[in-house]
Write a structure and sequence with these properties.
The structure holds two protein chains of two kinds. Chain A has 14 helices and two strands. By secondary structure, chain A is mostly helical. The radius of gyration of chain A is 21 Å and the shape is globular. The chains are: A mainly alpha, B alpha+beta. Chain B: InterPro entries: Beta-lactam/transpept (IPR050515), Beta-lactam/transpept-like (IPR012338), PBP_dimer (IPR005311), PBP_dimer_sf (IPR036138), PCN-bd_Tpept (IPR001460), Penicillin-binding_protein_2 (IPR017790).
């Protein structure tokens, strides 16, 4: 669609259903941003629209990159990003503050954000290379652990808990799908559950407070629980059909914090109600299901793991954000992809979609040419 | 795992992937369903609750305090009104940096340190959103200076409102009381948000307190849409307040103010009654506090000064001061004697003293009055005549008449409290002290001493009932219903008593100084003195004090009851000077009573008379109060004894022992 000079055949080959879905989500997001600004294209809706189309174009370009090329550049990209994370840490250390991006003059590169798809690619690449026979040996575990642990640890240092968690989850998902023994996951989960009370006991007071406020945000409605309380009020007061376009009082009167970024879902639900909320949830469900479908149909181990990992990365974005705004998870800074204002999340998700389209294209071509 | 060494092939790995991908998809779907369910729960099941919360976020309801009803006198002249004012409050919960805000406010409003101290004290005690007053009655410049800096001063709330104003100041202090912010206790009882609305005042004393339901009115309300930071977006609806009702009193504001001024430096009360209706024309207790300064919230210094004053400015002496009535009961005694069958022409020879049992009772005139009939006994206030007559009859024959005249009675008046004293008799004494009534008790009671205690209002009612012969009831309001019933005593007897009281002033009696100079109007009166003897530890230690140098609290009470015109009474009054002592002639009861009664018939003459003597007392009430406050501050600043440090007598006159007159 954006590719003016491209001939009809590749254009027709694009997964149009999925693209319409992405356009619907993004378009709805722009409507919400327009309303969040009090019925104005500035400062959010217009800029976001431009970025959205730009990154959508980028995704379509990425869809033309063959799988072999992805394989080839996976580790180099991963390496560059790890170096960039170290660089960010170093610059932050020198300038005496915490910093998350590298200013490259034209764009600000946020390596931790890029790491979200990159970790999936890297771990998938590793298992793609690993012979199946070695899957039950220690050699199947420690390189993956290193691949995940280094960037996650560096991001933790920034400190950015939300992103570190997503990198870890993304990588672990791939290891799980690659077929590591189930007992590793069950055992870890049990160990974590057992350690939680002990960890709680070892925590500082302020950390404990955060946990307690998450468990009962109403206990501190004007302090740390304020975000969650106000978000729930916005969502709950919307009712079935919402208060109407441009009629959201929680967002427009500043009661809802971060109304255009992390809490954009609450802004939307206040005005569009349950109907609007279910629409978005369903749209994301379809998008992620498409991603999982791509993984199913993929031909190589690397492609399968990558596709499922990337689809799950999108799922983590959506799931964590929605759980957070509805008071089911603590407040960690994870935006709602394609809807929240901001460039990095759109870019990350569009990279995911681009690679998914690329894998989709490859597997369909393979089927057409048996 | 059952098989520890499982062989993994590419095929089985692919199969594992498919299974696990399905599981992952299932988990994703499950989370999706959970999110959808949670969303539905919030927006359907809890919709009502959250809609309410959202609305209470959005809409800020501000009560508009109702304008308080006016209090006016019988001619519609204002006694208590409302003035527009600018005020600044602090909302404790919204203050971020207390010291900075207080510092800025002090600079902007030029508040004295003393005020800052009070504000800090109030802030300590304040709870939550109950506003603490910073300043009231501000001029526009200061108000604007605070208003434009609101963003830098979180917690500060500038308001435009009304403040209570009493044009006559201290003169009406004890009558109307004062208003002030509701107490935390009052709020806890009713939880009425109006009570904690800035600028809203409730009556704290006097009529302001007792007539609160009538004066309060109904608050208005303003609904405004506000942002999270409290910025006003738009006004939604405004309902204006309904002002309280105007309260019209029988008081004559001019007379009230005049009487208060005429009392001068005395600690005393004046009650003037309309003999036709029982309406109270003046109801004064001086010195008093200025209710205007009370409604602003009183400073600690001011409070301490008032509560340490031995003239008891914080007590409404007109109903709370109890005194032995002394010789003012003699006209009433005369009526009782007449009703008991005593011939008014019967004479008693006064030799100056009389022996009863083992005691000797003296007349106030050492040499004695010689032979006296009833009229002359009243005119000369002879004690021996009444000792002798009451000794013959017994006080139990007099007490019912005393009560019928209003002594010892509690009247239904909208006053926060009354003390009604005692009219003793034998059964009362037996009940109270388990002792038999003695002749000495009768003799003491016959001259208004001993166990007899009354308040100034009762003395005024006695004068009014003697003047009209009816069971007049004092009242602050017009249209009190049916006229008072006649008292069950013979009209001729009343006429004899009135004639004796006329004689007191106009035929060479003890009250000659009170003769009115208004043509055609004669005053009938009776003077009275109650000697107060207190023996304190300090006095014992320091030796007996001479009478000439008695400290204030040792001096006699000076009483005066009267009515005018003597031939056709329209007004009756009582003047009670606590520890008046008959020391300064123009401050004594006869002249005070005369001038106050003169005011009712000839204002100019009364004012002339007042203006002649007022400068010798140190100016009018406001001037004297200001000078006193200045002196207090000065004394407080310099270490040393405080100007008036004697403790407040709990029951003035309670220890009175004997009277001479």
């Amino acid at each position: 669609m954006k590719q003016g000079g491209i001939i009809p055949a590749p254009l027709a080959a694009l997964p149009w259903g999925m693209l319409l879905l992405v356009l619907a989500i993004g378009g709805f997001g722009l409507v919400v941003l327009y309303s969040a600004a009090g019925g104005s294209l500035t400062p959010w809706a217009f800029g976001q629209g431009v970025r959205f189309l730009m990154f959508l174009g980028m995704a379509i370009v990425l869809s033309r990159v063959p799988e072999s090329a992805w394989k080839a550049i996976t580790f180099p990209i991963y390496g560059v990003l790890v170096l960039a994370l170290i660089g960010v840490e170093a610059i932050g250390g020198i300038s005496g503050g915490s910093q998350r991006w590298l200013d490259l003059g034209i764009i600000r590169l946020q390596p931790s954000e890029m790491m979200k798809p990159a970790i999936v690619l890297a771990v998938a690449r590793f298992y793609g290379m690993l012979p199946a026979g070695q899957l039950r040996t220690i050699h199947a575990i420690w390189p993956a652990a290193l691949l995940i642990g280094v960037p996650a640890g560096l991001v933790m240092l920034q400190p950015d808990l939300g992103t570190a968690l997503m990198i870890t989850f993304g990588g672990l998902t791939v290891t799980f799908l690659a077929g590591l023994p189930l007992r590793l996951y069950v055992g870890s989960a049990l160990a974590a559950a057992a350690a939680a009370p002990i960890a709680f006991g070892l925590m500082h007071d302020y950390q404990r407070n955060r946990v307690l406020i998450f468990l009962n945000p109403e206990s501190d409605p004007l302090g740390k629980g304020y975000h969650i309380s106000q978000s729930k009020i916005a969502i709950g007061s919307g009712g079935l059909f919402g208060k109407g376009f441009l009629q959201g009082t929680q967002s427009r009167l500043d009661y809802l914090p971060e109304r255009q970024t992390d809490f954009v879902f609450a802004t939307m639900t206040e005005e569009w109600g349950l109907v609007g909320g279910l629409f978005l949830i369903f749209a994301f469900f379809l998008l992620i299901r498409w991603g999982m479908q791509v993984a199913h149909n993929a031909r190589s181990k690397y492609a399968r793991l990558t596709a499922a990992g990337l689809a799950t990365t999108i799922f983590f974005y959506v799931g964590i954000n929605l759980m957070m705004v509805m008071g089911l998870a603590p407040v960690v800074g994870i935006p709602l992809p394609l809807v929240s204002y901001g460039g990095s999340a759109v870019m990350t998700v569009m990279i995911c979609i681009g690679i998914l389209m690329s894998i989709d294209r490859e597997s369909r071509r393979g089927r057409r040419l048996p | 795992m059952k098989r520890p060494k499982k062989v993994v092939t590419e095929a089985s790995q692919s199969f594992t992937f498919t299974r696990r991908a399905l599981l992952l998809g299932g988990i994703q779907g499950g989370v999706g369903a959970l999110l959808a369910g949670r969303l539905a729960w919030l927006s359907i099941a809890e919709n009502e609750r959250y809609a309410l919360l959202s609305e209470s976020n959005r809409v800020n309801l501000t009560l508009i305090p109702p304008r308080r009803g006016w209090i006016v006198d019988r001619n519609g002249k204002p006694i208590a009104i409302n003035r527009t004012d600018f005020r600044v409050d602090l909302i404790p919960d919204r203050i971020v940096d207390k010291d900075k805000v207080l510092g800025d406010l002090q600079a902007l409003l030029q508040l004295p340190d003393e005020e800052m101290e009070r504000i800090r004290d109030d802030l300590e005690e304040a709870q939550g959103f109950k506003p603490v007053q910073v300043a009231e009655d501000l001029d526009w410049e200061k108000f604007a200076a605070v208003s434009v800096r609101l963003n830098e001063l979180p917690g500060v709330s500038p308001m435009r409102g009304y403040s209570r104003f009493y044009p006559d100041g201290a003169a009406v202090g004890h009558l109307v009381g004062y208003v002030g912010a509701a107490s935390a206790k009052q709020y806890d009882e009713t939880k009425d948000p109006l009570l904690i609305t800035p600028g809203f005042k409730v009556g704290k004393d006097g009529l302001e307190k007792t007539m609160e339901p009538m004066l309060r009115g109904t608050p208005g309300a303003k609904r405004v849409e506000v942002t999270a930071r409290g910025k006003l977006v738009k006004e939604l609806t405004t309902r204006s307040d309904i002002p309280g009702n105007t309260l019209k009193l029988t008081i004559d504001a001019g007379l009230q103010a005049y009487a208060a001024r005429r009392l001068g430096t005395n600690s005393g009360s004046v009650v003037v009654i309309d003999v036709a209706t029982g309406g109270l024309l003046a109801f004064v207790s001086m010195p008093s506090y200025d209710p205007n300064s009370f409604s602003d919230g009183i400073s600690r210094d001011e409070w301490k000064m008032l509560s340490d004053d031995d003239h008891i400015p914080l007590m409404n002496k007109a109903v709370l001061g109890l005194y032995p009535p002394g010789s003012t009961v003699k006209p009433m005694n005369a009526l009782a004697l007449l009703e008991a069958g005593v011939d008014p022409n019967d004479r008693v020879v006064c030799s100056g003293a009389m022996r009863v049992g083992s005691g000797v009772f003296h007349c106030h005139k050492r040499g004695g009055h010689g032979p006296l009939d009833m009229k002359h006994a009243v005119m000369q206030s002879c004690d021996i005549y009444f000792y002798e007559m009451v000794r013959r009859l017994g006080y139990d024959r007099v007490a019912p008449v005393a009560r019928a005249m209003g002594l010892g009675q509690e009247f239904e008046l909208p006053l926060p409290s009354q003390r009604y004293g005692t009219v003793p008799d034998s059964s009362w004494k037996l009940r109270k002290y388990k002792q038999k009534w003695t002749v000495a008790d009768s003799l003491n009671a016959s001259i208004g001493q001993g166990y007899v205690l009354v308040n100034p209002l009762q003395m005024a009612v006695m004068a009014a009932r003697l003047a009209c012969g009816r069971q007049l009831l004092p009242s602050f309001f017009h249209g009190h219903g049916k006229p008072a019933a006649a008292l069950p005593y013979t009209a001729e007897h009343f006429a004899l008593v009135r004639d004796a009281m006329y004689g007191v002033v106009n035929e060479g009696g003890t009250g000659g100084a009170a003769r009115m100079q208004v043509s055609g109007v004669a005053l009938a009166a009776k003077t009275g003195t109650a000697q107060v003897r207190r023996i304190t530890m300090a006095e014992r230690a320091g030796g007996v004090l001479s009478n000439a140098a008695l400290p204030f609290r040792m001096r006699d009470h000076a009483h005066f009851i009267c009515f005018a015109p003597a031939d056709n009474p329209r007004y009756a009054a009582a003047v009670v000077l606590e520890h008046g002592g008959h020391t300064v002639r123009n401050l004594d009861t006869p002249l005070t009573g005369r001038d106050i009664m003169t005011y009712l018939f000839d204002r100019e003459r009364a004012m002339r008379s007042l203006l002649e003597v007022e400068p010798t007392w140190g100016g009018d009430i406001a001037t004297r109060m200001a000078a006193k406050a200045e002196a207090w501050k000065l004394a407080k600043a310099t270490p040393g004894p405080l100007p008036t440090s004697t403790p407040t007598p709990a029951d003035p006159g309670a220890n009175a022992a004997a009277a001479i007159d």
